[in-house]
Amino acid sequence: MIDEKNNEALSAREKYQSKVEKAQDYIERFDILETITNVGNDEVFTPRNTVDMILDSLPEEVWHNPNYKWLNPATKTGIFEREIALRLDKGLEEIIPDKEFRRKHILTQMIFAIGQTKFTANVARRTLYYCSQANKKCDGIKAKDGHYVNGYAIGNGSWFQDEEGNIKTPRLEHKFEDSRGRSIPKDCPEEEKKKYSCKYCGIRADSKYNDPNQREKYAYEFLHVEEQNLLWYLQDLFFEGDKSMKFDIIIGNPPYQLTDGGGMNGISAKPIYHLFVDQAIALNPKFLCMIIPSRWMTGGKGLDYFREKCLKDTRFSMVHDFENDKEIFPSADIGGGVMYFLWQRNHNDMLDYFVHKEGKIVHDKRYLSTGESIIIRDTFASRIVSKIDHKNSFSSIVSSRKPFDFGADIFKTSPEFFSERKDEKHSIKFYGWDGVPTVKYIENDKIKNKKLSGAFKVFISKTGDPYFRMGRTNKQILRMPFIGLQDTACSETYLCIGEYDSDSIPKAIIKYISTKFFRFLVLQKKKTQNVSKDVFEFVPLLDFSNNSVINWEKSISCINNQLYSIYGLSEEEQNYIEDLIDDFKNGA
Questions:
Q1: Largest CA distance in the chain
Q2: In degrees, to the nearest 5, what angle opens at C-alpha 321 toward C-alphas 267 and 520?
Q3: pTM here?
């Protein structure tokens, strides 16, 4: 009989948690999953401590029910499956006393997953089944030290009929269509592929994800099935078509984005994590628990409809929101924070909202919706915003991106438009980016929006506070704006604010932007470095003339205090803003 003492994946935790006293002990005991680093932000691997926090959010009863079916729809390392199995092994001891039978039941009847890629499916099987082939038996070949040379699966490969077990290798392909729903032809020329995108995840046919030389297609199985057919597909995949089977608990850390090749330098990111949440909810499990970026709370690229749905969904019962993503993913670079949530099918009430900030946790009982168009994560901030009438919003005088229809890379793509010096042909001063903030002069006839270029306005950088990503509590939020004089224009590196006949109103606007009051309100919608028209939604548009109730000739701090008084902010609320927002620094 084969000695399986060292072949029990479910017993691994004791080794991983042992104190490291000698180098040899470390080599034998360390958790190899902790050594895997992220391969970009498309796929963010989950540290074990983070997995433990997420599993702790589930009700205690899930660990004592042997009938529940668990699904991770996009597994990477198998760490979720391993930690779930360990907890179930302990939680089911009294219900299924026989250790061997209990562990076999957990792995064969309870835990299911789909690999994010072919590679991650193998890694996850190696983690959970002790071998990347779930049905691999020991071949009996031993080394001189007595160890078996070739690996074999838990239960000596007898627990599963095939090599995948309950962790399936993805097999679906992208389905590319044009804007009219016509499928991409097999002989489509390379230059035409950009006209076709996947109907499920939205990537273009000319993207790196559709490279025929690439082994992985990133056509995530969970997304590339019609919502109404997903349950049937999973029943066929895992249960041989048994239509009575369903999943009780869906859990995991889905892929966050697809780098779709657009944007400056061909780099852009299409969020897809919300699609996993949508599909999971459509399966109507008892519990759904996932960790995702927090950016969806303020909307953005493809996320507005998802945010609106979530605002109305009272089945969210718990949210843990981390403003600094490094607290959860030390080696990733996500931006805007991360959150994990618990969604319960039978919940219809307020949720427990936990904000994690600088090592402190603030708990509140609330609904996701607080009457605003976004989710204001900070309850205290929500109270302040509710006092301010912003129906007439400052965003109405802010341009959309590309105010003059020039991309951020215009200096590289069209250098012939520009001159280093002003002359009769190049009389319009042009602000852009060429590795650093750069000023040149553009040909007069290249400017389309001549009215705006000929007016006084305010320029503000499309990227925010340079200190924003350093995990600091205090922030500047924006970069220092400056006046755009007549005959000036810019690339999409900047946004334009207003359009005036003199510089008096732009001067007042710059003082307004410089107040902590203004930038605090911007912060409620600005959760990444990016500055767009929308982030100014909560800022009220004021009268910047000499007849205003605000004396724009006063210092910035005096104007700030006038704003506190006008909107009736308490001393506590004023102190909250003062502590949170920094004064502008020179060069910011």
A1: 94
A2: 75
A3: 0.73
